[in-house]
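Request: Give me one sample?
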Amino acid sequence: MTTFDQILSEKTIFRDTTVLSPHFIPKELPFREQQITEIMSAVSPALKGQKPRNLIIYGKTGTGKTCTMKRVMEDFINASKNKASMQYINCRIYNSRYRIMQKILKGYVPDMEKAGFGLPFLYEKLIEVASDGQQLIIILDEIDMVKDLDELVYTLTRSNDEITRGGVSMIGISNRLSFKDSLDPRSKSSLYENETIFQPYSAQQLQKILEQRAEQGFEKDTVESSAINLAAAITSQESGDARYALKLLSKAGEIVQQEGRKKVVDDDVEAARKKVEIDLTVETVNTLPEMHQIVLYAIANLSISGSKYARLEGLDNSFLFSGEVYEEYEKICKRLRKRARSSRWYKEYLGDLEVLGVITTTPSGKGIKGHTTLIKIGSHVSEVVEVLKKNLFSNLD
């Protein structure tokens, strides 16, 4: 019988697998010094008891937005001496105004999650906490995932009209430069924000990042430099997503470890590529809000059978028409006993799925009757369907 002692005593090419995780925050963040300085400058007034302007951070997935923000947050909390607070909220999990207000006030209101406090109570409590002289900075990661974003922005920004000595500021992190376009004009005007943009990493930058992590995460001389270069090149061509590059290198290491070899080479990176793509797709799908999952399930289902409209128009039937996807979405909602959202919300869901790289959309253009949007799902459709079936229908009577 295998014991933990036996497993722990086995030779491994890994020194510290934590360092290879996309969630690990290194002491030094290469190529993000400018953004760190911009964010620190933006929030520094709070350390003097003054209200900072709101800040919106933009950048594609894997450009270091969250990692950089958490690095700044750690330094900010150490410097604040209780004059100001900074709170991180993942809006994929806390995706409504009420849940976010609950999360903000959890440390200030006993029994927050047990009692059914109404929104007016939470709003008054927020004003009370901030009026005690506190500068509250709320970090909203993936802010565009909030269902009632207009109401949230308006509530947080307008609370300052009633706060006497402190203030509430907001830092929004978004994958979409256009996310503000969907806001109500009142919410837009009340934001009064600074902006910071994170550009995708180049191949050379990804190479340096991987070298830094490999040095700490792997034992000496267990990773060929050409394997690191290949992982950086593949990632740069596809997305510039540092998380993908790290997963690629880590998975290549796992393959070598499982096969009892001593060094990661180019072939291991290539072998890791497909596995990582599937892992990332599954991870993305699992963290989608429910309505996004239903829309994606509609797209995946239709993609397997092929579009009947595309065939009629002489198109590749892997393209789907927006209208037929919406019809399928309504059918699935009915089956799940859920209320289908309006076409306006449906278009928002499509936009979010495209930002996450799960689907691509394109205008139909000339030669097709009427004007519509063509939708195409990414790879690994069967894996997507299996994950969504489990998520959506496992508890259905």
